[in-house]
Amino acid sequence: MRTIWRFRGIFAALLLLPLLPGCVAVLAGSAGAGTIAWVEGRLDAPLDVSLDKAEHAVNRAVTDLQFARVSETKDGLTATLTVRTAEDKKVTIKIVRVGELTSRVQIRVGVFGDKDQSLIILDKIKAAL
Questions:
Q1: What's the CA gap between 111 and 113, in Å, rounded?
Q2: Which of 27, 92, 99, 118 has the largest CB neighbor count within 10 A?
Q3: Ordered mean pLDDT values, 10 residues apiece, the chain (129 residues)
Q4: What is the pTM of this model?
């Protein structure tokens, strides 16, 4: 019986989601770790690798996609790469260290975001891991 009530609560929350202010949508995964989310024009996704390995995968994905590099910054907690597409759209990819073997990647394409292109970039990053 608890399962039915839990399901009803989740279903009711999903129905009310479009009424909430802001723009947050869960794209895949559960509510805990491992969730990919679209937040105000930015794709947020976890990676089960260190910051250095995540940065390497991002650089490989950018090379595979033939993006033009604009700038790159890195410290012990974050790495940010700004590139441009062939259509001259600005793409910002930020990697945040969450733990020793966990990172979070944030991808924004253009000013308002492009979910489809962000997902393509994320797929390339994951393939490079």
A1: 6
A2: 118
A3: 48 47 46 75 96 96 97 96 96 96 97 95 96
A4: 0.74
